[in-house]
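Now for one record:
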Amino acid sequence: SHFPERRLTHLFTCKFGENMSTNSIFMTTVAMRVSVPLIIFCTILPCSFASGAHKLTSSGRSIELSNVSPLRDTDNALMKTGETDVLYYDGFYYLYVDDWGECPSAKCENTTNDCCPAVKNSDCIYALNHTVLAYRTNDFIRWENLGVMISPRDRSPGIMFRPHVVHNPATKEFVMWFENYNLSTPCTGGLCHYAVATATSPHGPWRVQADAATRPKFTCGTSQGDFNLFVDPATGVGYIVLTHYNEICIERLNRDYTGGTGDTYTIPGANLTGVLGEAPVMFARKGTFYVLWGSGCCACSVGASVFVHHAAAPLGPYAYLGDIGTAPGHHACNSCAGHFVTKAQQTAIFHVCDTVVWLGNQWESAPDGIMDHALLYWTPLHFNDPIGADPGGIAHLQWRDSVEIPDPRAC
């Protein structure tokens, strides 16, 4: 029989040396474009796929993370990065992202307010086709694409944003919350804005349990916005921290993490800083609880502030420690060019060994103009631990083209 001509369509690079994974075996197939029957050469080689952005440092004890180069997965495809959340479990870091499809950047450059009008008028970004994708890595160099976690057919019709995933140590399940806006149906108390899914594995399959998280009451306002989930590592109790734009609210979750309990604490937000609040995160370090949030940045290209609060208990009371994201000599504002250090809006905070890593979305920075391929900004947080009456805090962020974090495989 006759064989058609074939072209080499995938290029794979094998890296040999101390960073080579002993259990990474890949069969490479090289196809020659010839007019005779197809000739195939197969070789079994140990391969290491690099993201093209992150690398092992020369010392071999840390990982260099790039803030100026896009990430690629093990198929050499540009990774989606929209509203990235990070979960650590069983030796792997899982990235959950909101995939908006091949949406072009909104091109909403600096305005006196924000980019929301341009974003909301886009026929792509505010659309019903969003999915949740997941990647995983154990070294921040090789990223495995795990595929779609939540598709439009898995949930009620709505505009999905900001997936967040935690592991529940009591139920042994993984719990995902995401915003699922239905603009055609009025939301009473914001109840239609959040959905909850559960799975027995971090890579699914996921089952949507409710398209509105149940709660007996919510004292912080009438409309839910950006949010994040947090599990107290000492007690296993779950919390949600969310913005009502003019204030930040924390609520203790029920045992299953599928709804609230009505036990809340409110941080003043705009009443304290003078700007609307978005993108909150919550984490713990050395027995202290932190809530960080930023000024308004609706997929803006200029970044946001990072306001810091801390407390001795998850539900406060919280003390305000200052703004570590606004550039020196500038003031916090919504989507103001040149005012912010990282040009990123925070999206997640996670631990690598004893290091706390801050992660932000550098909106409008995609090299190919696709919104979901925007660069991420990574930086370790540096803490000024309390001394005497000084409450301590977090050192001001600085721009770095690249940063180093510990190699998680050596923790």
